[in-house]
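> forwarded from #structure-qc
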């Protein structure tokens, strides 16, 4: 049995990781909500964002910029570049197959995932890329719980981005266009909605969110390698399914739930079993409530 303080510590750790899962899961669920495609290359987009953020932070620090400015610029650079990767993936790998059967885009996504992984391996090598320690140090003690500054930053940034995305989709003109495209792309195009532009923007937003998650994670753990996208992408996809695929609030809830469950499993059972527990819960949810915690949104998917 974990003591009360240790339990709170595990919950804080779980919320930190869960917030990252939620950010990545939003990309999965948005793309599925619009074109009903599981973008299995999304994990590699997250990994590329982590690499770009790490390299950029080192460059900005070496240029003499303050720590906070280096961090902000690193996140902005990672989001901008990975948005271009996401846009290129949609334009070159997915758009030509939009009218094909479901299997062709799926194979294309898997191939793109392998391509990105090997591309980073050839460009950066197999060794871990280490994030500058000056940005990740420091923390405070709250009662019996130690909280790192980076944990607070991850939770606050993730919360702000998730709330902003929900407001964007629900209250802006482009968000309304996204919802129209998700419901019926043919009818949306007939009433003047630029469907191709909406779909491209969906990939851009999802990729930018994944990049922010990648930078935050490499700050938290201190290093990244070219295989990091596989596990994180799989966990984020699990979070999206847990919350209800195609459901933005569901992806947020699923990510936080999965992170806390993993952390508690690591504390109660052992770190080597946390993945097993997470996927057992996924199987149980699919058996008992296959539509996810908040339900799959089919008519107006996002």
């Amino acid at each position: 049995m974990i003591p009360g303080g240790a339990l709170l510590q595990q919950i804080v750790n779980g919320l930190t990781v869960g917030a990252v899962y939620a950010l990545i899961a939003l990309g999965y669920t948005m793309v599925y909500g619009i074109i009903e495609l599981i973008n299995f290359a999304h994990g590699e987009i997250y990994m590329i964002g982590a690499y770009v953020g790490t390299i950029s932070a080192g460059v900005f620090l070496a240029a003499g910029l303050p720590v906070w400015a280096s961090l902000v610029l690193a996140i902005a650079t990672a989001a901008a570049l990975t948005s271009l990767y996401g846009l290129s993936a949609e334009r070159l790998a997915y758009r030509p197959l939009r009218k094909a059967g479901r299997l062709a885009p799926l194979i294309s996504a898997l191939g793109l995932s392998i391509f990105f992984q090997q591309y980073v391996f050839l460009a950066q090598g197999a060794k871990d890329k280490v994030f500058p320690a000056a940005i990740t140090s420091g923390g405070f003690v709250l009662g019996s719980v130690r909280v790192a500054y980076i944990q607070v930053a991850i939770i606050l940034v993730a919360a702000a981005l998730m709330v902003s995305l929900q407001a964007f989709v629900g209250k802006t003109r482009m968000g309304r266009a996204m919802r129209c495209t998700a419901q019926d792309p043919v009818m949306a195009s007939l009433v003047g909605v630029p469907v191709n532009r909406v779909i491209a923007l969906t990939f851009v937003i999802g990729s930018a969110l994944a990049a922010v998650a990648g930078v935050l994670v490499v700050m938290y753990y201190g290093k990244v390698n070219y295989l990091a996208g596989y596990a994180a992408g799989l966990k984020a996809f699990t979070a999206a399914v847990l919350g209800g695929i195609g459901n933005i609030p569901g992806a947020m809830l699923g990510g936080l739930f999965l992170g806390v469950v993993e952390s508690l499993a690591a504390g109660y059972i052992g770190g080597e079993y946390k993945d097993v527990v997470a996927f057992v819960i996924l199987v149980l949810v699919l058996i008992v409530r296959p539509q996810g915690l908040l339900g799959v949104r089919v008519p107006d998917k996002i």
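QC bot note: Strands lie at 129-130, 139-142, 145-148, 223-224. The first helix runs from residue 4 to 35.
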